[in-house]
Amino acid sequence: MSLTRRDFVKLCTGTVAGFGVSQMFNPSIVHALEKFVPHVFWIQGQGCTGCSVSLLNSVHPSIAKVLLDVITLDFHPTIMGSEGEMAWGHMTDVAKEQKGRYILIIEGAVPVAENGHYCVLGEVDHKEQTMLETTLEMAKNAAVVVNVGTCSAFGGIPAAAGNVTEATSVPKVLADNGIKTPVVNVPGCPPHPDWMIGTLVFAINAIEEKGLEAGLGEVVKILDADGRPTPFFGQNIHDNCPYLPKFDDDSYAEVFTDKENCRYELGCKGPSANSDCYKRKWNGGVNWCVENAVCLGCVEPGFPDEMSPFYEAG
Ligand code: FSX
Ligand code: SF4
Ligand code: SF4
Known about the structure:
15 helices, alpha/beta, binds ligand FSX, Cytochrome-c3 Hydrogenase, Chain A, domain 2, 37% helix, two-stranded antiparallel sheet, binds iron/sulfur cluster, 5-stranded parallel beta sheet, globular, Rossmann fold, 2 domains
């Protein structure tokens, strides 16, 4: 299906059947999106690139639509065409020119041991550019920092027990260095493409409609105590799960192939997880974790240590 920009807004506002980003958007953003296209830089630290892959799997709207019509993606290590000094120079030049107005997206945690040298993003004049210093430099002058994935939002898998690199979440790294740029967390290991695109569209629209400061104020208003947009992360999975009546009846599945009963005894962490997976579903709405396995609580600050062992109850 070929979509116009106006169609894209309809998708985001839920006026096209089958797309659920829905209630958080206002149809009045049509004009907003038509004139405001922010510069976006996406940097990657300690992660598995699953967040980027998840974004690229966006079905409605297609990722091509987002990249061509919604944002100007100036830097992304996995998908940009240029590389080396040219790519790095483009990022730093545009960031200077757009100081205070660009969106910085961060995927992956930031290792702070050994002065950040466990994760090097590039080299300029024979000097290594670490994830740590790049994060600080780019975040300092951003309008907003959007952490995609549980690694950047909360530390995630790189920060799990045994963390020799001292992998740290972006909010903590920024706070430890006195950087006060507004931060939005879009966790998930990986996050759903709708959560990432929906959050971006909400922020872009709010900034366009109300101006930078007031628009960012609107974004902050929808965040929960862990910095997550409540339209996506405001509901508890267990409280909304189709298996809840089975849980209430103590009817538990003992094997994964039992699709009739609650998955709690198989290790489901739905009671500790807050997201809309139960209704949004994954892979273009085909299925979700609980249907075939269990919820691992991947959107929570305690993931993975507090959710382990994954396949044991409790
Ligand atoms: Fe982390 Fe992104 Fe998990 Fe992976 O890189 S949120 S490890 S799915 O993809 O940061
Ligand atoms: Fe709760 Fe998981 Fe059982 Fe659903 S399957 S009711 S989320 S424990
Ligand atoms: Fe993460 Fe649970 Fe949602 Fe699966 S169902 S994506 S583990 S929060």
